[in-house]
Design goal:
Length: 145
């Protein structure tokens, strides 16, 4: 009985390690010309500046060329993921980024609410065998133009 309880405890404890928890940041990075920001909702982006993903042109250093990238924060560390592919099919944008051992897939549609543009979609983030999915909303980053 004790062995069974211990095994069940270890299984449930390990389940918590099966998610990649992206952390909120409150401002766009100085390392890039951030053109889009994504979070749990547009309301949280506008009212609380809760940013999960930022995309745009990353300012390279050391003679490298600037590149399209996304920045995410996991475990207190900003990770730069470089754009691998992008495509648009039937109004849905798909962007795939990779770097620092992470792979990020963004799928979203541009929509309008009144005079405002916003993005509605999902993201999938992977590191090794661990995969997490999020429902996301986004908007152009008006503060970086």
């Amino acid at each position: 009985m004790f062995k069974a309880a211990t095994v069940l405890f270890l299984i449930f404890a390990s389940c918590n390690e099966r998610d990649i928890a992206m952390e909120v940041t409150r401002q766009s990075s100085d390392m890039m010309n951030c053109t889009r920001i994504f979070g749990y909702s547009v309301k949280k982006l506008e009212e609380e500046n809760e940013i999960l993903i930022q995309t745009g042109k990353y300012y390279a250093s050391g003679g490298e060329e600037d590149r399209q990238a996304a920045i995410i924060k996991v475990n207190g560390v900003d990770h730069v993921l470089y754009l691998l592919t992008e495509k648009a099919i039937s109004g849905e944008e798909t962007e795939v980024y990779d770097g620092d051992g992470y792979s990020l897939s963004l799928r979203y549609q541009q929509k309008e609410r009144g005079n405002s543009i916003y993005y509605d979609g999902h993201c999938r983030i992977r590191k090794g065998i661990i995969i997490s999915e999020y429902k996301i909303e986004g908007q152009p980053n008006f503060y970086n133009y």
